[in-house]
Structure formats: structure tokens, C-alpha cells
Amino acid sequence: MPSVSYVVTVYNKALVLPFLIAGLGAQEGCFEREFIFIDDGSTDDSVKLLRSLTGSWSRVTIVSQANSGPAVALNAGVRRARGDFIKPMDGDDILLPWATRRLLEAIEATGCAVAFGLSTAPYDIAGSPDDTIAACVHAPGRIERCVDMLRRSLRRAQTNPSTWLARADAVRRSRGCDERVFIQDYSIELRLAALGCFAQLQEAIMRGPAAAPGRLNDNQAQILHDVNLALAYFLADHPVLPRDVARFAFVRAASRAWRWSRRHGSGSLASTEFRRVCGARLGLLRPTPRNVLATCATFAKTNSIRVPIASRGILGSSSPDRV
């Protein structure tokens, strides 16, 4: 019988934890399960509520750590996981009852190490967790084998932690999240995609909240900054990527920064962002990690960006690498 380790990162989620726990408790299927909750320095009642809501469950581990960000927290949970498969979860999402069973079926059907599904309409935190789950109807979808997963991921993120499940050995071989990047979603997807194909399940497996205080999703600048930062480190860690693949990643990063600068009033034709995106597209600037890293500065011009200690001192160099 397979075993699944649910690794849940939590930071000040007391308001929505009943929804998360209701979804985990409703999982269908014949497999062993363990639950690992990493509380990332919450200042609300998250830990107390977790203990109360999971008090009757077996194989539950609740770990409290100093606030270090979701990438560090997810890696801490993965290190403690003992299951054959790892199912990460954000602390405010609902995993639909059939999700684990169907993701396991997708892996078995395709031979892929990772399977991911879709999210459905957000839930209202004013409702009842049990009623919210009961209102979801399973609509089975087809399973596809994504052999071009790395290029898909380089174009834009295909997953978030709550949408995927993976073989534990693959997660460990990937080295998990890049702890030089604050948000965990994209760096671990890139690292897993570099190992091989994913199975895509064309059906909903999770729901996120329509609104919840303090969500990282509300800071779009941090998200886009971290996407580009994860790309820069990924290129540095994979120096033998084909040049066309690296160039594709650079163009995507430069375009992302250019669109942000235009949206926020600083993207003139004389701007650094415009010159950089032209250089990337025309091949005048090389697709080096340093050039991708330079695109991150755009997002810090308009918003406060949290940068892990591991990245500090690395982000200062912005001289372009020209052809």
C-alpha cells in the first residue's frame, strides 16, 4: 500500500485552517498517510488550532520554527516526510476529496514522477468547511503526459504546491525549494521539471480562498520578483541548458519586468526595462543568470520585496552581459 506525506506550510492561517483540515480529512483512497505541519512563526492561534483540529488523527507532526518564509518551511517538512509520495499544501487551501487518489492514479497511468491538477472556483471563508466541500462535485478529466514540462514552466508557472503530488525520491533529487527565493512555488516546479515529464490531470483538485488576510498572492510584485529570481538561480544551477532554452527564459523574465514597469508608469522607451527586453529579444544581451537577475530590480521599485538572507549581497550586480 502506498504512503503519502502531506506537508503543509502555515503562517497566521487560524481563520482558514478549518477549511484546510476538512479537506485533508476527507481524502478518499486506500493509502497510508502522515501529516506534517510546519508553522513558520505564526503570531496568531494557528498552532493551538492545529493541535485541536487534528487531535484525533494518527501520524501528525506539528513543527514550529522562526519565520523564514515558505520555501524554507516546505523544505523543512520534506526532510521529515517518510511517505512514498509527497503532497504539499498551502495552509489556506482546500484539497478536494478525490484529489490524492486521482493524482496517484495519474502517476501510475503515465509513469511520471509528478502529477498536477487544476484549481476550481475560490471558496468563501464565511461559509462552513463541510458544506463547502460537500458542494464540490467530481468531474473526472483526462490525464495527459507533459513531455515538454520544462519549456512550459519556463514560459510561466504551471502549478502551485497545493495542485501537485510527487514521488518523494524525485522531490529529494530535485533538492526541493530554492531557499535563496522567498516564495516556494516556482523554484521547486522548475527543479522538478528539469528531471522529466509531469502528468497533468485535467480536473479540479483544490480550492483557494476568495479572500484571506495576509496572503502572499496579494503581493503581485513579490510573486513576479521571485519568479524571475528563481529563473536566474535555475540558469546558474543548470549551465548546460541549450542556448535557445536559456534565451527563452531570459526573454520571459525581461518581458515580465517590462510589462510591470509599463503598468506602473516607469516603462518609457528610454527605460532600462525597455532596453533590456529589446536586447533579450534581438540576441544583443546574453541569456546569463546575471542578466536575468537584473530584471528583479524592477519590482523592488514599486513594492517592498522580502529577500532571504541567502540572496542578500548577490542582488547588487546589474552590469549586462553583452554578446
Description:
It is a single chain. This protein is an alpha/beta fold and 323 residues long. It has two domains: 3-212, Spore Coat Polysaccharide Biosynthesis Protein SpsA, Chain A (Alpha-Beta Complex); 219-311. The chain is 40% helix and 17% strand. The chain has 13 helices and nine strands. Strands 1, 2, 3, 4, 5, 6, 7, 8 and 9 form a nine-stranded mixed beta sheet that branches. Helix 8 (185-193) runs parallel beside helix 9. The longest helix has 21 residues, at 243-263. It is globular. The termini are far apart. The model has no long low-confidence stretch (mean pLDDT 93).
Summed up:
The protein is of the alpha/beta class and 323 residues long. The chain is built from 13 helices and 9 strands. It folds into 2 domains: 210 residues, Spore Coat Polysaccharide Biosynthesis Protein SpsA, Chain A; 93 residues.
Mean pLDDT: 93
Which regions contain 5 or more consecutive residues with pLDDT less than 50? none
Distance between the termini: 55 Å
Q: What name is given to the CATH topology of the largest domain?
A: Spore Coat Polysaccharide Biosynthesis Protein SpsA, Chain A
Q: Please indicate the count of domains.
A: 2
How many E strands? Answer: 9
Order of helices and strands: EHEHEHEEHEHEHEHHEHHHHH
Shape type: globular
Class from helix and strand fractions: alpha/beta
Taking the sheet with the most strands, its summary is: 9 strands, mixed
CATH class category name of the largest domain: Alpha Beta
Question: What would CATH call the homologous superfamily of the largest domain?
Answer: Spore Coat Polysaccharide Biosynthesis Protein SpsA, Chain A
